[in-house]
Design a protein that fits this description.
CATH class of the largest domain: Alpha Beta
Largest sheet: 3 strands, parallel
Structural class: mainly alpha
Strand content: 5-15%
Number of domains: 2
Helix content: 40-55%
Number of strands: 5
Bound molecules: iron/sulfur cluster
Strand order of the largest sheet: 1-2-3
Distance between the termini: 110 Å
Shape: elongated
Number of helices: 6
Length: about 230
């Protein structure tokens, strides 16, 4: 260092100087964000028991600044989807996710949330919450142990450590609706509104096939009647 200044004796290219500044800010942002991540109070099935266990004194998630489970999405940074995701629950999950402020993260805990688990073929279960909200970390297991959940949380910490505020989507002004996910409609089945065009085309195609089949049947009936006469 030159005496009395903050200039280095070694010349530093301007782009690297900028990077040093941004990198330092990123480190501060990421350090504070990952060490004060508040999960939402949100349990769906048996996996939630292990999540509760991870928060209790034996495993003590408080070591990572995560002891404050919030009962409102407005104060939550992390949604832990812990358990079987039924079709009836999906609209609520997406609505809660939309209500969480950015930056927000989703951890999918257990086989059910990851891909339907043992109930994958069930009429009322979806095969993975990642079909509806973006998932940052998947924790396998049925159920995952508290240690596995904590490993998943540390993996999320690592992911956050790699983020830069220069390119994270929540500071982008390009698309203000980018973080809002369509809430699926629960009717006779779950309808994902992002798939409406595909559903409409398929319905038209099916209707067309039905009409063609009906016309074929009518023609066949006429031919049969003529033959009989
Ligand atoms: S993954 Fe296993 S333990 Fe977890 S909710 Fe599904 S059935 Fe229960």
């Amino acid at each position: 260092m030159t005496a009395g200044t903050f200039e280095s004796d070694i010349p530093i290219p301007s782009e690297v100087k900028n990077n040093v500044f941004i990198t330092s800010l990123d480190k501060i942002y990421n350090w504070s964000r990952r060490n004060s991540m508040w999960p939402m109070t949100f349990g769906l099935a048996c996996c939630a028991i292990e999540m509760i266990c991870a928060a209790s004194s034996r495993y003590d998630m408080a070591r990572f600044g995560m002891e404050v489970f919030r009962a409102t999405p407005r104060q939550s940074d992390l949604m832990i989807v812990s358990g079987t995701v039924t079709k009836k629950m999906v609209p609520t999950i997406v609505r809660l996710y939309n209500q969480m402020p950015e930056p927000r993260y989703v951890l999918s805990m257990g086989a059910c949330a990851n891909g339907g688990g043992p109930f994958k073929e069930g009429y009322n279960v979806v095969d993975g919450i990642d079909k509806f909200v973006p998932v940052d970390v998947y924790v396998p297991g049925c159920p995952p142990t508290p240690q596995a959940l904590i490993y998943g949380l540390l993996t999320l910490h690592e992911k956050i450590s790699q983020q830069s505020f220069t390119n994270v989507p929540w500071y982008s002004k390009d698309d203000p609706m980018a973080g809002v996910f369509p809430i699926p409609v629960l009717g006779p089945d779950l309808v994902d509104l992002r798939q409406v065009d595909v559903i409409r085309q398929e319905a038209l195609r099916t209707q067309g096939l039905e009409r063609a089949a009906a016309a074929d049947a009518a023609v066949s009936e006429e031919i049969d009647a003529e033959v009989a006469a």
